[in-house]
Design brief:
Elements: H1 2-22, H2 27-40, E1 47-49, H3 50-59, H4 66-76, E2 83-85, H5 86-113, E3 120-121, H6 123-132, H7 139-149, E4 157-158, H8 159-168
Antiparallel strand pairs: 1-2, 3-4
Length: 169
Amino acid sequence: PADRYRIFLFSLKLEASHRAMADSLSEEQIAEFKEAFSLFDKDGDGTITTKELGTVMRSLGQNPTEAELQDMINEVDADGNGTIDFAEFLMLMSKKMKDQDSEEEVREAFKVFDKDGNGFISAAELRHVMTNLGEKLTDEEVDEMIREADVDGDGQINYDEFVKMMMSS
């Protein structure tokens, strides 16, 4: 039963990632990024310094932590010269947006399970959704699935537990 659940979650995630790859950046988004990028490209040489990256990203409504910025910069600034060109910046932004998309998709999936919208997935809700997906589960199987994901032991799955489960499968 737990395996069947994993397969279902895996196919959900697979589809989500295909969708994310399919709709990469629109021309509109690229133009928006280009504009933000050039605002910080002070001398017009087509590069921005790593320090300015945080400012650019915040101007685009992202909110990276210092640690995240450092990771991004290390990832993108291959030659370690402390500057990022537009192509590198674009790659970075498109990755960031994909991460946000998949977060959104997990949230949507949670809402599908959480029928009454109380922020928890009960055994009954889980059984209902799995039955709709053509998975006839016994009460034992449903209970086992809940037990597997239910970190705090309250007998239902909250959003954080759901995210952990989705990310681990």
